[in-house]
Amino acid sequence: MARVDYFHDPDAPKANSLRPAVSAFIQDDTGQILMIRRADNDKYAIPGGQQEAGETLTQTAIRETKEETGFDVSVIDLIGLYSNPNHVIAYDDGEVRQEFSICFRAHLIGGSAKTSSESKEVVWVPENQIENLNIHPSIRLRLSHGIDRKGKVYYT
Questions:
Q1: Which domain holds residue 127?
Q2: Which of 13, 20, 43, 74 could be cross-linked to 51 through a Cys-Cys bond (beta carbons 3.0 to 4.6 Å apart)?
Q3: Which of 15, 109, 10, 99 is nearest to 62 (CA)?
Q4: Count of domains observed in the chain
């Protein structure tokens, strides 16, 4: 399904839904960050997606990472809670979702890179190469908080 992200855009459509979602910030032993190139908007992002009924938020992060990247992870920490009403995502089915996402820090435990219907590319990116990628501002914020490692949980 195609989507358009609106971020602090006065012409954005009004949100008509709010659904819990998660993302996972994963670094390998060399400090590279696991990222995907999304199939729906061609931007780079950390793995993540919508919570399904019957699963916890951490189970969602583990499942979404596996589905989008092929890697197995364990959730080890909370990075932040993101609920910016000035960030909405319009889908081609008419849904306009207000951002509501929980970002976890996760640890790689296995698997191998594998794309999916949601990911055109799975890459490990050195911190100093993040600036060179096409990344939505909301994901850049999560990356910044994940890299920062101050131990304080971010929230809006």
A1: 3-155
A2: 20
A3: 109
A4: 1
Query: Do residues 88 and 18 touch, judged by C-beta distance below 8 A?
Result: no
Q: Each residue of 59-85: pLDDT tens digit?
A: 999 999 999 999 999 999 999 999 999
Q: Are strands 48-50 and 119-125 parallel, antiparallel or unpaired?
A: unpaired
**Encoded tokens for 141:** 């914020």
Whether 137 and 44 have beta carbons less than 8 Å apart is answered as: no
Residue whose token pair is 């979404």: 64
Instruction: List the catalytic residue out of 52, 67, 95, 121.
Output: 121
Counting residues of the chain whose pLDDT is more than 70, the rounded percentage is 99
Pairwise CA distance, residues 61 & 73, whole Å? 9
What is the Cα–Cα distance from 28 to 124, expressed in whole angstroms? Answer: 8
**Active-site residue flag, 121:** yes
Looking at residues 8-21, what average pLDDT do you find? Answer: 96
CATH number at residue 141: 3.90.79.10
* Residue at 112: amino acid letter: S
β-pairing, 21-26 vs 101-111, is parallel
3-state secondary structure at position 131: helix
